[in-house]
Amino acid sequence: KMSSDILSKDDSKRLSKIRKDLWIGGMKGLFQGLAVGFLSIKLYEKLLFQRLKMPAKNVRNHKLMYVMLAGSLGSLIGANYYGKKSVSKVGEMFADETREYVKKERKDITFEKE
């Protein structure tokens, strides 16, 4: 059975909102990570290449890799943060609905909390 068969309309809407929040959290983290990566590269260039008079090597690929790495880490952290915030909502929602579904379908299963 699909989750739409088990969940009520309110719970399906709540689940959709949780999914949306996860995606938005991941995108916010991605853009914040990209910004942090880009600004740290600019700071790195300013400190090393201008103040210390180090020769500027061709490190364009390294810069791009660092910015993309910071973006992906930001996305991971953002989605993880919003996911941990919404775990309790998902657990409560599925526990009640699954218990009712199992009671209807399987008569041989008993629950302790009744």
Structure description:
It is a single chain. The protein is mostly helical. It contains three helices and no strands. The two termini are 24 Å apart. The mean pLDDT is 78. The radius of gyration is 24 Å and the shape is rod-shaped.
Task: Write a brief structural summary.
This protein has 114 residues and is an all-alpha fold. It has three helices and no strands. It has helices at 3-6, 9-51, 60-105.
Write the layout of secondary structure elements.
Elements: H1 3-6, H2 9-51, H3 60-105
Helix pairs in contact: 2-3
Classify the beta-strand content into a percent band.
under 5%
Note the total helix count.
3
Main structural class = mainly alpha
Assembly annotation: single chain
Averaged pLDDT: 78
Order of helices and strands: HHH
As residue ranges, the low-confidence spans are none
Report the radius of gyration as a whole number of Å: 24 Å
Name the helicity range: over 70%
Shape: rod-shaped
Q: How many β-strand runs?
A: 0
Distance between the termini: 24 Å
Largest sheet: none
